[in-house]
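Hi R.,

Here are the chain sequences for the assembly we discussed:
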Amino acid sequence: MRLTTMTTYAVQAMIELADRPAGTVVSLREIAGRHGINLKYLERIFSRLCRSGLIESKKGPGGGYFLRRRADSIKISEIMEAVGESRAPVRCLAKAEDKYCSQAETCSIRPYWKRMKETIDEFLDSSTLYDIIKKNKND
Amino acid sequence: MRLTTMTTYAVQAMIELADRPAGTVVSLREIAGRHGINLKYLERIFSRLCRSGLIESKKGPGGGYFLRRRADSIKISEIMEAVGESRAPVRCLAKAEDKYCSQAETCSIRPYWKRMKETIDEFLDSSTLYDIIKKNKND
DNA sequence: ACAATACCCTACTTTTTTGGTAGAATATAG
DNA sequence: CTATATTCTACCAAAAAAGTAGGGTATTGT
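And here is the predicted structure of the full complex:
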């Protein structure tokens, strides 16, 4: 039941972007350096975030990435989705794998795992980047 | 965010035991056969469940395993605990790993992961074997 | 007693997933 | 033009999970 480090990196990085004033961009080199993340690895993560439309890039010198939407409209679940983190506790509940288990219809435990997934989804769907930042600033 | 198959096997098997009338035992061979689980693999799982005190064994011909407590007193979280499934979404929240991240104290995201863990724990702590069986029988 | 049944322990192998690397291509500000 | 930065396509290594194998030990019905 552990998130991949790719997911935690992605959230960390998104927090970084959210913390910057609008109109500024952040380079990967900067983020990678500060968090001790391999640059190439970060690149892969950001390309996914980009493809999902959560962030946008500005190329060339002085370029970098920036949030495409307001921090309070970006759900944590969206970030996970972008980097491919599954939120299903069991394989038979993952997307496009409904046919993985032939006995899915009669399985007595599946409904339980489904409720578990819903609980997790609800949590991740109801929190945004802004919530994390805000909570932190209240200290 | 996926449970290991060992965990899902463990829950499946515990449901089997819970579904039997009191006083009866179930052999591993039987469970392994019905669910298509490798016998040796199941043995390992059951030895852990046994060590955790969730089930008990009866040796000899006609022997097998049975629940040590009532189904409505066995939490799903206990089963996970028994087979070593971590419920922490990130490593720095896992047991005996508080020192994994040196910046745990100042980390802005950690409190969020902690709330996530609490949400999951709450779900798993508040459901028992009996709940799963019962829900199923209502169909 | 003893053989049948079933649990118990240790080590190993394979597979899958995750994490990390490398190198080159493309775009752009100055 | 060129330095900086993102994009794309592979590939490789480490770790974790899953599955196997084989021998050993305890119990009990007969």
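Chain A has a mean pLDDT of 91. The helical segments of chain A are 5-19, 28-35, 39-51, 76-83, 110-125, 129-137.

Let me know if anything looks off.

Best,
T.
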